[in-house]
Design a protein that fits this description.
The chain is mainly α. It has three helices and no strands. It has two domains: about 1-35; about 35-69. The relative contact order is 0.08.
Length: about 70
Amino acid sequence: MVQDILLVLLGIVVGFIIGFFVARYVMKKYLKKNPPINEDMIKTLMMQMGRKPSQKQVNQMMKSMEKYM
């Protein structure tokens, strides 16, 4: 009886661990394919701040964003 309870608890813990890593992998893959911020958004934000962004500035911002993902 105690052995059955331990096996169920072990199965739940292993399931949570595997589920965590699978969900993490899927989210990383999704965010890489569909980034939350793209070049058009960066251009729009900079223009709202009163700056006319050059392509070099936009590329620098994109690289700094990708660094943290």
